[in-house]
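Mods, move this if it's the wrong board.
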Amino acid sequence: MKLQAAMDVTTTRQALDLAAKVAPWVDILELGTPLIKNEGLDAVRAVKDAHPLTTVFADLKTADAGELKADLAFGAGADLVTVLGTAGDSTIAGAVRAAERHGKAVVVDLIGVVDKAVRARAAIGLGARFVEMHAGLDDQAEPTFSLQRLLDAERESGVPFSVAGGVNATTLPAVRDAGALVAVVGGALYNAPDAAHAAQALRSALT
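Not the wrong board. C-alpha cells:
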C-alpha cells in the first residue's frame, strides 16, 4: 500500500516546507484544493520541480470541463488529478482522455456520493485509475462519522481504491487490511509537532 501526504495548506511555501519533511517517507504528495485555489497551478509546478521523482497529486475536485482542467494540471506537472464522483460521466471521460495524452491518470473522488460502491464501479469503467473513498473535513466533524463505513463501501465496490479521512497511525492497519492501494494522511502529518517523524512512523506502521 502506498502512502499519500495530503498537504492541506494554503501557500506554496508551506507546501514546499512540508513536502521537504515528508517526501522521504511517502509515495505521493497531494496538493490540496485550498492550496490550488489560492496559489493556482504554479504550486503544482513548484512541488514537482522540487520532487521530480515523487508522484504529485493535484486535488482539483473537478465537477465540469474535465478534459480542459485535467490537461492544464498535467501540463503543470501533476501525475494524478481528481474528478468528483458526483460529476457527469462525460466529465470523468474527458479527464481520462487528457490523462491518456499525457501518460498520467485520473482519480475519482467519491466525497458526497451516497452509493459509493456503485459509483466506484462506474468510475473505473470510465477509465479512472482508482477511486478515493473520501470523508472530508466537514464530514469528519460530524458526530456520526465512521471510517468503518468507508471501509465497508470499499469492500463492496470491488475496485482499486484509496482512503482519505481519519487515517492516522491508529487507523492505518485497518485501511491496509481492507485492501486499499493508497492511504491518504493529512492532519496526522501537517498537525504533528514533527511532520518528518510522523511520516516516518506511518511508513514504519505499513511495514
